[in-house]
Write a structure and sequence with these properties.
Elements: E1 8-11, E2 20-27, E3 32-35, E4 40-45, E5 55-60, E6 63-64, E7 68-71, E8 78-79, E9 81-86, E10 89-94
Antiparallel strand pairs: 1-2, 1-7, 2-3, 3-6, 4-5, 7-8, 9-10
Bound molecules: zinc ion.
Zinc ion binds at residues 72, 74-75, 79, 94, 96-97, 99.
């Protein structure tokens, strides 16, 4: 998966389309990502003890990785990334401006 934690992204599909955010968590096995404060869903938390009330909280829900695009730091545009190798390391780069991302 080309997207990892901390990446700046733009949502290109779904109800939060057009919003940008930061990757809070990447789930490579599921090809999904969690974006800080976006794609929120209400979740009910059940009371743990007698006398306690259940609560409803908003949680950032994972979304499919193809629904987001990386925003390049250098050109500030949503872009696709490629890989080039530098020695033994694989470096990601922006396909628009060729800067390392
Ligand atoms: Zn760029």
């Amino acid at each position: 998966m080309k997207i990892k934690k901390g990446d700046k992204i733009l949502i290109v599909k779904g109800k939060d389309r057009g919003k940008s955010g930061k990757i809070a968590r990447a789930l490579p096995n599921k090809l999904m990502v969690v974006i800080e404060g976006l794609n929120l869903r209400k979740k009910t938390i059940k009371p743990k003890r007698a006398g306690e009330k259940g609560r409803i909280v908003s949680v950032a829900w994972p979304m499919r990785v193809e629904n987001v695009m990386i925003v390049c730091d250098a050109c500030n545009k949503p872009t696709r990334v490629g890989y080039r190798s530098q020695g033994k390391k694989k470096i990601r780069y922006c396909k628009k401006c060729k800067a390392t991302v």
